[in-house]
Amino acid sequence: MLVRANCRGEFDTGLRMRYVVALRVVKYTPPDVKSVPEEVGWGQYAVGEVTVDAFVIDLKRGDVPCRFRASGQTADSVFWTEGTAEEAIYKDIRESLSIEIYRMLRKMGAGVD
Question: What's this model's pTM, rounded to 2 decimal places?
């Protein structure tokens, strides 16, 4: 097992951390990446989607003061300049989900800025 000699920064961050958000996937429809061409550029495919239950965990009190559901999905086409189309498509799902989670946390008044 590799252990860093100085973990002070991680420990200090841990002391300041009050809340974490845990995600559990409740529904997943994978995009049809087989229909996307291999070469870099534009490609169209069947949309993919993920839905998660998000739990805001209060680490100080040891409870879950908030829970909500959020979804992220791809568009029906992708443009990429590096890597693979599949990487770009899954990045699209992840970013869409992240935006929705951020929006929900803001709506609840969480300090996410």
Answer: 0.75
